[in-house]
Design a protein that fits this description.
2 copies of one chain form a homodimer. Chain A is mainly alpha-helical and about 120 residues long. Chain A folds into 2 domains: about 70 residues, Orthogonal Bundle (Arc Repressor Mutant, subunit A); about 40 residues. Helices cover about 70% and strands about 10% of the residues of chain A. In chain A, strands 1-3-2 form a 3-stranded antiparallel beta sheet. In chain A, strand 2 and strand 3 form a beta hairpin. The termini of chain A are far apart. Chains A and B meet through helix 1, helix 2 and helix 5 of A and helix 1, helix 2 and helix 5 of B. Chain A binds a DNA duplex (30 and 30 nucleotides) through helix 4.
DNA sequence: CGTACACTGAACCATATGGTTCAGTTACAA
DNA sequence: TTGTAACTGAACCATATGGTTCAGTGTACG
């Protein structure tokens, strides 16, 4: 199950790692579109666009339905919950880590101050 | 500049699309580590781990410093702000899109109800 | 000094990715 | 029925990815 989640994260982060696919998602956020419309907009062949859509579909970010000749693409049911959660937990980890470093540095400064106070009283010039 | 941001997103989403690299980030969130320590933990060669670290470093997610023989890896300065922002804006887009669909569906239901009311008064059996 | 350790670069390998062209198949339209 | 438009699968291509081995280089330590 953890493996499944990891595979899911693998697939969707990989899907998001391409500027064209992020563009497709934004475009589909406005309105559903056919393969042809998407291919025109992103200036590539139908076959190329089909591949991108397949990647997004495999990641669960897009669903498609073919009626007649035309396949209509729309946003999938997934809202990137797990991806947002991973990033959020990373951000918290990051903050905690750097807060800790801050405390350590502060501790060192404190220590040094104390040390200085002990050693700088009445300097014997 | 937009291109630069897109390249940044490309690089960091790609960096996050590997389960080992996400593991490395989580590990470094606990404590800094050398290449050897990371390689041991993730059961791969030093060379292989070096490559992963390089990818993370290139994405700005990790910084390294070599002192003596050992290269110490720590979390980079980037907190995935842009990545979190992209995902968040996508989630809002997604919500807006589906709210709109809800309204459309509701509209249709409303229409149908009205129609039913108009047509089902005193059914002539 | 000699040895072992930590890393690094080059080369290699299999597979994946992002794109293309070409040759279909199916469906709408004149 | 004869196009033609929309898609699709197969094959191909260049490059990237995730890993390895091998052969170093530089550093610590006894």
């Amino acid at each position: 199950m953890v493996q499944l989640q990891q595979a899911r994260l693998d697939a969707s982060f990989a899907a998001l790692s391409d500027v064209t696919r992020r563009g497709i998602l934004e475009r589909l956020g406005q309105k559903d579109a056919s393969i042809t419309e998407l291919a025109d907009r992103f200036r590539m062949t139908l076959t190329g666009m089909k591949k991108h859509v397949s990647v997004l579909e495999h990641a669960g970010l897009v669903t498609t339905e073919k009626v007649g000749r035309v396949r209509t693409c729309r946003l999938g049911l997934r809202r990137l919950e797990q991806e947002a959660a991973w990033i959020e937990s990373y951000r918290q980890l990051w903050s905690a880590r750097f807060d800790e470093l801050d405390r350590i540095v502060e501790g060192l400064v404190q220590e040094k101050t104390t040390h200085d106070r002990n050693t700088t009283v009445s300097p014997t010039s």
